[in-house]
Design brief:
Layout: H1 2-24, H2 32-46, H3 48-67, H4 86-114, H5 120-130, H6 132-151, H7 159-197, H8 199-237, H9 243-253, H10 257-265, H11 277-317, H12 340-375, H13 385-395, H14 399-423, E1 425-426, E2 430-431, H15 440-464, H16 480-485, H17 492-501, H18 505-514, H19 517-524, H20 535-571
Antiparallel strand pairs: 1-2
Helix pairs in contact: 1-2, 2-4, 2-15, 3-14, 4-5, 4-15, 7-12, 7-14, 7-15, 7-18, 8-10, 8-11, 8-20, 9-11, 13-14, 14-15
Length: 618
């Protein structure tokens, strides 16, 4: 049963990673090697959520056996018990594969995707040159570490010590990254969930995003126009059949047909720059990035309009006394099978309270994590809340509770740390956008960050529950993960101070995030952030309202045009004439013919078939 549970956990994790990659990436346009490498990086980063709890329960069972080896007390075996060699082999694969990906493979692949060369050899050469400084810094750090070891002969230069030094350097960098990511996410996740329950706040934020996205959309369109103008001038200056013209054809195949037609209609007025290999490589990179940015902003613009209109509909329907959800556009298209009434209750009542409840739960969980992060190095008495929960459950041999608490805790740690990765944006170089609009460079960069966060999150979680020898020196049995990772005991500066007390910096980052210090600084230097009391924010909200009003008028005119066209089409349809069987007329001596009052119509434009057989008796 334990192997089945482990296999089920691995399958669920793979489906989760594949679903996220399908949502953000584009499997049809991205290179297959990029997709595979990012999938492996994301998969190994998410696998700790389900495997670490199994490692913890098995370790507690081994501790019980070691402690009661001389007694006749029999320890209860957990239902998820695994053979001793299963988890170490799994952690070796996960850890060393993640390290190879994040420090060697993904950086080269990242530069390869951004290269503008037209051959594989050229792109690979460009990637190696761009990472030369990156790898040189590795060699410089390794030289410093080797010099440090040479000054301490008791450490030695054996392979286990060198491997521990490499792990310590990698985990130290990852722990610095974890402090900022986790410190921000512990405050941002509960606050954003709570603010989502306030529809007025969400609507103003949507207006603010509309205004910023409109400026970004215009900028991306102007950048694409400039790139297409440069491409058009290059096409006019080269004669077909030359090697440079073939490179231009390669660039032109990446431009959609509608942009080619727009480019051909324009006149080349700017002077033609000298076209050579370097210019075409630069132009190739510019075209790729401009098209990616333009497509992303267009997709986000449509999604943001839909989201803002939905929030406006919720705001209007919440004040309605009919308790029937009515939409501004798309009448009769309810998202609920139960009808408009159930949709009104969900959007106007139920969802708000569920978000408030979830916000309270996550806020309490963040307080627990911050308290435990600040106090987990205190050994006796243990005041880390998660260590208290695990110790209490281990005394009762309640392995199910141990696994549930461990899963929930490390899952929340991963959500807060990974939330920052999926929400952060570094200009146009790194940005994760849904609806398959994320470029290869950003996907690889996210994979690198996730791989570097995986080992620190594992060690940090084991420290929170007092199952790391850095915290408890009298640990009877180590987890399989710490057996593979080691304990960073080679460098005293790292093992005794940095990796224990530095997580307290999470508290400082959390306080700064709570008071929005980072957002205020970015707002001052020109990167506008959503601040309720800021005047610039109020102006951008008003501008967003005007944009959405303009969009509603455009949609209304479009719907009216469609209605008029359909009405005109119905009026132009030919009238189908049907044969009418008339009853024989009996002559009564009157000078007028009998009239069928039921079929008579006065003053109506309806066209009727003329009467027949009127002169058959003549």
């Amino acid at each position: 049963m334990s192997s089945v549970e482990l296999g089920l956990d691995l399958v669920i994790t793979f489906l989760l990673a594949a679903g996220l990659l399908f949502q953000y990436g584009n499997w049809y346009r991205h290179h297959v090697f990029v997709t595979f490498a990012v999938l492996v990086a994301w998969y190994f980063s998410l696998i700790i959520v389900f495997v670490i709890p199994l490692d913890v329960s098995n370790t507690i069972f081994r501790q019980c056996e070691t402690k009661n080896s001389s007694d006749d007390v029999e320890c209860q075996r957990p239902a998820s018990y695994l053979e001793p060699e299963v988890l170490p082999n799994l952690w070796r694969i996960v850890y060393w594969s993640s390290q190879c990906l994040t420090w060697l493979i993904l950086p080269i692949m990242q530069s390869y995707t951004k290269a503008g060369e037209f051959t594989v050899q050229g792109k690979l050469k460009r990637a190696l040159l761009e990472n030369l400084i990156y790898f040189s810094s590795y060699l410089f750090i390794c030289g410093i570490l080797l010099a440090y070891i040479a000054l301490k002969p008791e450490l030695g230069l054996k392979w286990p010590e060198l491997k521990a030094i490499a792990s310590s350097a990698s985990n130290t960098w990852g722990l610095c990254l974890l402090v900022f990511m986790l410190g921000y996410g512990l405050v941002a996740v509960p606050r954003n969930i709570w603010n989502s329950s306030c529809k007025g706040h969400s609507l103003n934020r949507a207006y603010f995003k509309m205004s910023k996205l409109a400026a970004e959309r215009n900028s991306s369109e102007e950048r694409l126009d400039d790139a297409l103008e440069s491409l058009n001038s290059s096409l006019k200056s080269l004669t077909p059949g030359t090697p440079l013209a073939s490179h231009l054809d390669t660039i032109l195949t990446q431009v959609p047909l509608e942009f080619r037609e727009r480019m051909n209609r324009r006149r080349v007025e700017s002077p033609v720059a000298p076209v050579d290999d370097k210019y075409l490589i630069k132009l190739h990179r510019l075209i790729k990035s401009s098209l990616q940015t333009y497509n992303r902003t267009e997709t986000q613009w449509v999604d943001q309009i839909t989201r803002t209109l939905e929030l406006e509909d919720i705001e209007k329907n919440s004040k309605s006394t009919q308790r029937i959800f009515k939409r501004s556009f798309g009448e009769g298209k309810s998202k609920f099978i139960c009808g408009d009434k159930m949709e009104w209750y969900w959007y106007c009542c139920i969802s708000n309270w569920l978000l408030k409840l979830l916000g309270i739960v996550t806020a309490v969980m963040s307080v627990f994590v911050i308290w435990s992060e600040a106090t987990f190095f205190i050994k006796s008495p243990a005041i880390s809340l998660f260590a208290v929960f695990i110790n209490k459950a281990s005394e009762n041999h309640d392995y199910l509770t141990i696994e549930l608490v461990s899963t929930f805790t490390i899952a929340y740690l991963c959500v807060c740390a990974y939330y920052t990765i999926f929400k952060i944006r570094i200009l146009n170089y790194y940005y994760l956008a849904r609806k398959h609009q994320t470029d290869e460079y950003s996907l690889i960069f996210a994979g690198m960050l996730l791989c570097r966060l995986t080992p620190p999150i594992c060690l940090n979680f084991l420290g929170l529950i007092h199952m790391d020898s850095h915290v408890i020196k009298l640990q009877l049995a180590e987890t399989s993960y710490t057996k593979i990772m080691g304990h960073l005991d080679v460098l005293s500066l790292i093992s005794d101070g940095f990796n224990i007390y530095f997580p307290m910096g999470i508290l400082i980052i959390g306080v700064l995030t709570y008071f929005k210090v980072g957002s205020r600084v970015l707002n001052i230097i020109g990167f506008h952030q959503f601040l309720v009391e800021d005047e610039v924010t109020a102006e951008l909200v008003i501008e967003g309202q005007q944009l959405i009003t303009r969009e509603k008028r455009r949609r209304q005119r479009l719907e009216d045009s469609i209605d008029r066209r359909q009405k005109y089409t119905r009026m132009q349809q030919p009238v189908v004439r049907t044969e009418v069987t008339e009853e024989p007329i009996t002559w009564t001596g009157s000078t007028t013919l009998p009239i069928n009052r039921e079929q008579a119509s006065y003053g109506t434009p309806e066209r009727r078939a003329p009467p027949r057989d009127l002169f058959d008796d003549v």
